[in-house]
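Components:
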Amino acid sequence: MAYIIRRIILFVVTMAIVSFITFAVFQILPGDPIRTMLGTEADEVQVETLRKELGLDQPLYVQYFDWAKGLVTGDLGESIRFSMPVKELLMDRLPVTISLAVITLLIVIIVAIPLGIFVAKRQNKMSDVVFSSITQVGMAIPSFWLGMLLILYLGMNFSFFSISGYVPWTESIAGALGAILLPALTIAIPQIAVKFRYVRNAILEQLRLDYVRTIRSKGITEKFVMYKHVLRNSMIPILTIFGLITAEVVAGTIIVEQVFALPGIGQLLITSIGYRDFPLVQGIVMYITFAVVFINFLVDILYSVLDPRIRLN
Amino acid sequence: MESPQLHLEPSKSTNDLLLEVKGLKTYFHIGKGKIAKAVDNVSFAIKKGETVALVGESGSGKSITSLSIMRLIPSPPGEIVEGSISLEGRDLLTLSEDDMTKVRGNEIGMIFQEPMTSLDPVFTIGNQIVESLMKHQKMKKKEAYEKAVDLLKIVGFARAEKIIKEYPHQLSGGMRQRVMIAIAMSNNPKLLIADEPTTALDVTVQAQILNLMIDMKEQFGSSILLITHDMGVVAETADRVLVMYGGQIVEEAPVRDLFLKTKHPYTTALLRTIPNIDVDLKRLESIPGNVPPAHLFPKGCRFAARCTHAMTKCQEEMPQLIEFENNHKVRCHLYASEGGAIE
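Structure:
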């Protein structure tokens, strides 16, 4: 229980620091959103009036606290470009990005863990060479290129896949899957190529430990040794890796949403940076960091479920 | 069967034999075509109810011998190349892996040296005991947990009901070793292999664990193969002693004969390492040098390089095991003219 409380405090502190940095970065960034909004023709009076209206003439710390208060209450301000609350814009795009991230994560987990186990069981020189080459290739593939290949070879040939746009799950499950699957694969394939080796290494490391010999000495079959004991123990290091994957998957969605013209958060982020739509960009950055920090918080909590040594200390 | 005339050696009745290891060779392929002969032609037997100690320095092949009996040699790189290991007449080396899992933990129980790392850290003590009971005695979960509580009480836990719900890291080294004994004894094994069970423990706890093993042995009528390098432990617990050096058995004797009629210079050196309170020594005794690595054994006697009695013959010719009265065997050229060669 003390462990969980400590994690919650850490989570809140992290978010506070992130919010401060996010705010500060946009103050340093060159470019004036007011000028962008009004264009080059605007005179000084117009600029000052709008600045006052948006509260941008206030001292920075006042602006920060206003904004931070908004974050907590869920009021992220108003987008300069769309003249709409940032919250509404995010809510509109969120389902797309969340579906993409969740499906990607599921694919990575469903493939990387069994593959890692499979390779760990057949550990020898030949398969090590083969699989480490796969990892090298996987690491080197740029996701936009892989996305285009998938569009070309799968998207164009199978009508199940749509190669651009998004269909809400509530409208058609098959349609939503068709729209999400290819972009999800685009992010997942390089992740799998790299991460299954972590799974393999985690398992091989466990297999070397003394307790495995004890279990074998009890007459427990190899299947149980692997799936009950070794896998359960390996889940602790594997979980750490999947915490990291989540951050990478969220980052991956930004590029892939462009390739597949998915109307998600990533696409919104890129267009609003170009427009100097600071309230929107700040909101998105905060959302993305929140997601990543929150997942890592969940991972920490899961540790304590998996590992009694953490739970009881 | 009443046929005494069939006994070629009347002193050795074969049906009180529990385990018979014959010509065991366990080699490790250590790369570049090199072979480490960790266990090289080892033969011995354990009778029912007997405690046999297997002694020797680190690297002499004791643990590999015990893991070979359990068929738990990591393969690759290890491999049992030759020999037979019969448990009540059944050769364990010919069993399928599936049949072997019915022997491990059931007919042969094992305790390891490192109690701190020998239990699975993420499962409760109870879970790790019932696993073995459910596998071998086909017990239901509830029944197995009840048996686990009984076992923990037998090995000396007063609050056994609480212990079964605890995790290994909540227990001390001595307590974990008790748990290991409870697991090893849970299915009344015929043989208990204890691989340096007290080495990692406090001196005060060592005696408790040894006494517990002896109690358990008497209660369940098991035999014990005790692997140790502590001659004090040997003197207290063993009926018979096997001394191993460089993957071979160099001396075998009933425990009294080993201490009082020591033959092999290596055994003499081992015995001299026991500190004696009556002798005022400036330094503790030790045997100079190390056990040669198992891929670099000399062609002659493997102890020759460290032996104070070494002769030219020792460098050139491998001594054979020679048998004396009372089943006392020694592998040394010093005794070549006495006793009878048995290999």
